[in-house]
Amino acid sequence: MTPPKPIRVSRVALGLAVGLFGFVFVSIAINMRPHGWLSWFDLAIHGRNIQATVVSVQPEIHNLCRFRYVVNRQRYESADEGCRWYVGQLVTITYLPADPSFATSAPPSQVLEELTLFPFFAFFCGSVIGAMQARSLEKFLRGISSDGGTQSK
Question: Are 139 and 7 in contact (CB under 8 A)?
Fold first, then answer.
């Protein structure tokens, strides 16, 4: 019986595979949230600006602020992180007419950019890490194939 051929793992192939996994994982995580890419795209295109009143500020929770606003005589409350406001201040927010409970004080197109770029960042980091670890994986797989399923040290 001939011994099995050692498994070769290309650095590029492993890097791309790990990067692709990172991209898909982060993309799914972003879009499993109540408001994924499509919601932010809708908000950027169809959003309407309105005045809202800041009702609470919690600097200990990433500068979380809550604000209230009225659309079609209905009162809504939403929150954003990273606010530098004070209670009672009037701020301009953008809400989605199809879902007025979805609102933000940040420019929706900027948030969409950040949400879209993050998976590409995960792809890049995963590709670099995968390529760096290719040699370790190759040694591990070589040990498995030569031992018939167990790795010797």
Answer: no
